[in-house]
Amino acid sequence: MNKKGLSEKEVLNLLNKAMQKDTSYEKVLSAMCTRPHPIAVKAHMQFIASNMGDFGLFSGTRELESKVIKMMGNLLGDPNACGYITTGGTESNIQALRTARNQSKKKHPNVIVPASAHFSFDKIADLLGIEIRKASLDSEFKVDMDSVNALLDDNTIALVGIAGSTEFGQVDPIDSLAEIALSNNLFLHVDAAFGGFVIPFLDKKYDFDFSVEGVTSITADPHKMGLSTIPAGGLLFREEACLLPLEIDTPYLTIRKQHSLAGTRSGAAAAAAYAVMTHLGMEGYRKLVHSCMKMTHRLVEGVREFGIEPLIEPVMNIVALDVPDLEEVRKELRQKGWITSITRTPRAMRLIIMPHMSEAALLMFISDFGECLRNTKK
Ligand code: 0PR
Q1: What does the domain layout of the chain look like in residue ranges?
Q2: Interacting residues of 139 by C-beta distance below 8 A, sequence separation 6+
C-alpha cells in the first residue's frame, strides 16, 4: 500500500486504466454472465453496505430477499419454496448437497450427477467428502437413465439433474430422475443455474422444476440470465426443513441462526435481483429470452450456409458447433476480437448468445466465422 493516499482523481485514473484491460461484453460468446440491467445496478449501489450475514440489522433488505425467493418460487413451480440468495451456482449446489448429506445417515455417501454437470460438483466431492458418480449422456447430451440406474446403490443419497447444461444447454429428463428419487427415497437436486431464468420463458414447455413431484431443491441464478448483478445466485428448497441441516448457532449476531455458506454476504445482490425482477416482470424476461433465441436460431441458420452443424438443435441460447480445425478457427476468431469457448466431449465450439449480443454484432460474427473457416481450409 502506498504510504500517503492518492487523490480521488488519481485513483479513478488507475481504475480506468485497469478497466481498459478488461474485455467488454460486445464480442464475448463464452460467458453466462452479462451486463446487469441498469435498475439492478442502481439497486446494488443503493444497498451497497447491506449485509445479509447479520440480517437483523437490515430487515428492509431481508424483506427484499424474501420477496425474490417468493418470485423465484412462483417462477419455478412452488410459491411456497424457501431458500436464500447465494453467491452463485457453486454455493447453491454445495449447499443443496450439504443438506442431502447431513440429512442422510450414510458413512460413504455418493451422488449421481450427469457427465455434463458443472465443475462445481467436483469441488463438492472434495469439500463434502461425497463420492460424485458421473452418469453417461445419451446421443442428445441428456443424462442416460440406464447409466443412472446402473450407478445407483445403497449409499446413493441424491440425484442431480441439469436444466440448462453449461456446455450444451440441454435439459435432463427431470421427471424420470424424480421417479427414481421417489421410489428410492432420494434427494433430487436440479441445477438450473443458467436455465432457471430461461426455460420458463421458452415456447416449448419442460417439466424441470418443483411442478415435478420429487424435486427437492433447485439452483437458479439471477446473476446469469436474470440480468442481476454479481454475486446473486439462488437456492430454493421445496421444504423449510431442508434449511435446518445447514443451520449453525450465531449467538452474538442480531440473528440466532445462519444457514448461508458465506458469513458476511451481499444485501446489494438481493436488492438488485428484486429490482430487476420487479421491473422486467414475466413479460420482460419472456421478451429477453425470445430475443436471445431468435439470435440463436439466426446463428445456426447462418453457419449452416457454411456447412457447419450444431451437435443438437439448440434448446436454449447455447450452441455447440461441430467445427473442423476447431482451435485454428477459434484462434482466427480471437484475432478478430471474438471470444468463443469449447465443450469437453465431444470437442465443439460453444457459443452462448447472451442479452449483450445484438443482431448487428451477430451478423458480423457469422460473416467473420465464414471467413475464418475459409482461411483455415486454405
Ligand atoms: N451450474 C451450472 C449449470 C453452470 O453453468 C454454472 C456456471 C454453475 C453451476 C456455477 O455457477 P457460478 O459460476 O455462479 O458459481 N456456468 C458458467 C461456467 O462456469 C459460469 C460462467 C460465467 C463462466 C461467466 C464464464 C463466464 O464468463 O462456465
Answers
A1: 15-36+281-377, 38-279
A2: none
Cell (9 digits) for 177: 430422475
The model's pLDDT over 224-237, given as tens digits with 9 standing for 90+, comes to 999 999 999 999 99
What per-residue confidence (pLDDT) applies to 378? 77
> Positive or negative CA dihedral for 285, 72, 101, 110?
negative
Atom of ligand 1 nearest to the CA of 28: 27
- CA 58/CA 340 separation, integer angstroms: 41
* Distances, alpha carbon 355 to alpha carbons 23, 277, 285, 328, 362, in Å: 16, 15, 11, 27, 11
Nearest CA to ligand 1 atom 11: 89
The answer to whether 111 and 160 have CB atoms below 8 angstroms apart is: yes
What residues flank ligand 1, with Cβ below 6 Å?
31-33, 88-90, 93, 118, 120, 162, 166, 191, 193-194, 221, 233
Question: Among 118, 191, 223, 315, which is best to mutate for testing ligand 1, by the most ligand atoms less than 8 A from CB?
Answer: 118
How far apart (Å, rounded) are the C-alpha atoms in residues 345 and 59?
47
The topology under which CATH files domain 15-36+281-377 is Aspartate Aminotransferase, domain 1 (3.90.1150)
* pLDDT tens profile 348-377: 999 999 999 999 999 999 999 999 999 998
CATH code of the region 38-279: 3.40.640.10
Ligand 1 atom closest to 230 (CA): 14
H helix intervals, 226-377? 267-304, 326-335, 359-377
pTM: 0.98
Maximum distance among all Cα pairs of the chain, rounded to whole angstroms? 70
